[in-house]
Amino acid sequence: MIDIKNVSKSYTMGSNIVKALDDISFHVDEGEFVSIIGPSGSGKSTLMNILGCLDVPDSGTYTFNGLNVEKARDSSLAEIRNKQVGFVFQNFNLLAKLNALENVEVPLLYRGLNSKECRKTALKYLDLVGLKDREHHKPSELSGGQQQRVAIARALAGSPNIILADEPTGALDSKTSNDIMALIKDLNRNGQTIILITHDKTVAEQAKRVVRIEDGKLYE
């Protein structure tokens, strides 16, 4: 599903060149649950951006479901982001003026689905994450854990090949964090491929496979 070989990525900061990723190789099979753990500045965010086709490497190769990402057109990368990758972020990234149902519907509407189908699909995934009775609540009317569940429902609604979760429990208390991790593990047991990026060892070790990133290099 995901195959990264000898990938490097650098950024210019003032007069300095910072190597965010340094000749890394990484493979994820369909149905895996992998956590990538590392401290701030280790290269986690850069790796997430490349995995999610938000950025491309300077060198090396990244193959996503058979597509050579670094040579792909912008339109192809946009299609991957919209149809094949479900993003779950630490700060939820929900639209404040929309209720839970509408937040889940948004990416489906961008795909061109009719409103009836969008509504049906959004309700299905809100129910899956235990929030069908909160469908008309706006983010400000939901707890942090409920907002993250809406974000997960939104990611799942597009039937992605992979869920890419960036610090999905970082803004939550310990009990709510445990609830979200239980949901993520349940999704994986049902066949969903998940890559979780975190700095929290306790969270990382709940994955079936743990990869560490430090100073732009990966260690298994």
Give the strand order, joined by hyphens, for the main sheet: 6-7-8-3-9-10
CATH superfamily membership? P-loop containing nucleotide triphosphate hydrolases
Shape: globular
Report the major sheet: 6 strands, mixed
Describe the fold and architecture.
With 220 residues, the protein is an alpha/beta fold. It has one domain: Rossmann fold. The chain is built from 7 helices and 10 strands.
List keywords for this structure.
35% helix, alpha/beta, four-stranded antiparallel sheet, globular, Rossmann fold, 220 residues
Short description:
Belongs to the ABC transporter superfamily. The protein is built from seven helices and ten strands. The chain has 220 residues and is of the alpha/beta class.
Helix/strand layout:
Elements: E1 2-13, E2 16-28, E3 33-37, H1 44-51, E4 59-64, E5 67-68, H2 74-83, E6 85-89, H3 100-110, H4 115-128, H5 144-157, E7 162-166, H6 174-189, E8 193-198, H7 201-204, E9 209-214, E10 217-219
Parallel strand pairs: 3-8, 3-9, 6-7, 7-8
Antiparallel strand pairs: 1-2, 1-4, 4-5, 9-10
